[in-house]
Write a structure and sequence with these properties.
Blueprint: E1 2-3, E2 10-12, E3 18-20, E4 27-33, E5 37-43, H1 56-64, E6 72-77, H2 86-96, E7 103-109, H3 113-123, E8 132-135, H4 138-150, H5 163-179, H6 197-293, H7 299-314, H8 328-340, H9 346-356, H10 361-368, H11 372-386, H12 394-403
Parallel strand pairs: 5-6, 6-7, 7-8
Antiparallel strand pairs: 1-2, 2-4, 3-4, 4-5
Protein name: Transcriptional regulator
GO biological process, one term: regulation of DNA-templated transcription
GO molecular function: DNA binding
Length: 406
C-alpha cells in the first residue's frame, strides 16, 4: 500500500480496479485515497477521446468499500484526453445533475487546452449539491478536496456584470440547451453596450429556433402515434371481422361435415341391411331350391326349376371387399355379426369377414386401398367396439361366431 504524496493518506489499489477500454487504446485505473477519495486515471501512450465516463463503476466501488450513504469525492486525471464524445458528456451531465448521490465534489485536473472549454461547459451545469472544480495538477486537486472537506473553500463566483460572469453564463446557457435540452428564456442577458451582447442575442435566437424545432418534433411524434393508433384500430377491426368470418366458416364446415358423416353412416347402415337381407334371402332361396329338388315332380318341370334356381344363384350379389363371390357361409357369418353388433359399419363388417378368412393386414389394405397402419387402427377399434379385452384374439372370436347357430 502506497501513500498520497500530498496528503500522506494511504492509497488503496486493487487488480480488478484496472481494466482496458473496449477500444483497446487506453486503460482506466481506479484507486482510493484515504477512505473517501476515488482517484480516476486514464493511462494511454497517446491522446484519447473517451466515449464513456463509466459512472456505474463509481457506484460499484462505493458499494465494495462500504461507502454507501457516506460523502465521497472524485478526482479525475485528464492528462491524455484531447477531446470528448457526446456520449461521455451526456453521462457526465447525468452524474452532476442526479437528484440522489453520495458524491460531494468532482475535481478534474491536468486538462489540455483542446478539451478545457468542453469541461468548463460541463462544470457550468454543476449544482451546489455536487460542484465541479478544474485544477492544474494532482497536488492542486488533492488540496482542493482537503480544503472542501474542511470547509476552507472561498467563493470563486465572479462578480455580477463582470466579463467572467457573462462568460460563465454563456457557457451555462449553451450547456443547458445542448445537454439538458432546456429552451426556457435566458436567465442572464448582458446590456446592449456590452461586447458579449451579440453572442447572447444569437444564442437566444438559436434557443427559440431549437425550441420551435423541438415542438415541431413533438407534434410530429404525436401525429405519428395518433396515425399508428388509428391504423392499429383499423387493423384490429379487420382482424376481428376476419376472425368472425373464419368462425362462421368453421361452424358451417362442421355442420356440413356432420351432415355428410350422418349421411355416410345412414348409407352404410342401409348397405349393411341390404347386404344382410340379400345374404338371408340367398340362404333361404338355396334351402327352398334344395327342398324343391326333393319333391317328386315331372322331370321336365324339375329341370326347368333347377335351371331357374341356378340362374338366380349366378346373378346373386357380388362381394366387393375381396373381389370374389360371397359364399353362403360368408353371408350367414355377416348376418350373425351384424345382428350381434349393429354398431359396426359396412367397412368394419367387410374387414371382419376378411380377418375371419385369415387375410393378412397387408392384403386387406391392398384390397381396400388403405395403408397397413390404417387397417391395424381399424382392427384396434373393432376389438374395442366388440368388447374384447386385450388378451382375446379378434380372429378367434370371429371364427367362433361363425360356428354358432343363428
Amino acid at each position: 500500500m502506497t501513500q498520497c504524496p500530498v496528503s500522506g493518506l494511504s492509497v488503496t489499489e486493487k487488480e480488478h480496479w484496472s481494466f482496458e477500454n473496449r477500444q483497446g487504446n487506453y486503460t482506466r485505473k481506479y484507486s482510493l485515497i484515504g477512505n473517501d477519495i476515488i482517484h480516476v486515471q486514464e493511462l494511454a501512450s497517446q491522446g484519447i477521446i473517451p466515449d464513456h465516463l463509466y459512472s456505474a463503476d463509481f457506484t460499484s466501488l462505493i458499494g465494495e468499500e462500504n461507502l454507501t450513504g457516506k460523502p465521497v469525492f472524485i478526482m479525475i486525471d485528464c492528462e491524455p484526453i484531447i477531446d470528448l464524445k457526446f456520449s461521455y458528456k451526456r453521462e457526465f451531465t447525468n452524474l452532476v445533475t442526479a437528484q440522489e448521490s453520495d458524491l460531494r465534489l468532482i475535481v478534474l485536473y491536468n486538462i489540455k487546452p483542446s478539451v478545457r472549454l468542453q469541461l468548463e461547459m460541463l462544470q457550468s451545469l454543476a449544482t451546489e449539491k455536487l460542484p465541479v472544480m478544474l485544477r492544474e495538477s494532482y497536488k492542486e486537486a488533492v488540496t482542493s478536496i482537503l480544503d472542501f472537506k474542511s470547509g476552507n473553500v472561498s467563493s470563486t463566483k465572479p462578480d455580477d456584470g463582470s466579463d467572467k460572469a457573462f462568460r460563465n453564463a454563456f457557457l451555462a446557457e449553451v450547456s443547458r440547451i445542448l445537454m439538458l435540452r432546456q429552451f426556457s428564456q435566458l436567465e442572464i442577458f448582458p446590456p446592449e453596450n456590452h461586447a458579449s451582447y451579440p453572442y447572447f442575442e444569437i444564442l437566444d435566437i438559436m434557443r427559440r429556433d431549437l425550441q420551435a424545432l423541438e415542438e415541431e418534433h413533438q407534434q410530429s411524434i404525436e401525429r405519428i402515434e395518433q396515425e399508428c393508433r388509428v391504423l392499429l384500430a383499423s387493423k384490429n377491426s379487420l382482424l376481428d371481422e376476419q376472425i368472425e368470418v373464419c368462425k362462421r366458416s368453421e361452424q358451417r364446415f362442421k355442420a356440413e361435415e356432420s351432415a355428410l358423416l350422418s349421411r355416410i353412416a345412414a348409407l352404410e347402415i342401409e348397405a349393411t341391411r341390404i347386404s344382410t337381407a340379400n345374404a338371408e334371402k340367398n340362404a333361404a332361396l338355396r334351402t327352398l331350391c334344395e327342398m324343391i329338388e326333393k319333391i317328386n315332380i315331372d322331370p321336365a318341370t324339375m329341370e326347368k326349376i333347377s335351371a331357374q334356381c341356378a340362374t338366380l344363384f349366378e346373378t346373386s350379389d357380388q362381394a366387393a371387399m375381396i373381389n370374389t363371390e360371397l359364399t353362403e357361409t360368408d353371408s350367414v357369418f355377416l348376418s350373425k355379426l351384424q345382428k350381434k353388433h349393429p354398431n359396426l359399419n359396412q367397412r368394419e363388417l367387410r374387414i371382419s369377414l376378411m380377418i375371419k378368412l385369415d387375410y393378412h393386414s397387408r392384403d386387406i389394405a391392398r384390397s381396400l386401398g388403405l395403408s397397413t397402419r390404417g387397417i391395424e387402427s381399424i382392427r384396434y377399434r373393432l376389438h374395442k367396439k366388440i368388447g374384447l379385452d386385450k388378451h382375446n384374439s379378434l380372429k378367434t372370436y370371429l371364427t367362433n361366431l361363425a360356428t354358432e347357430s343363428l
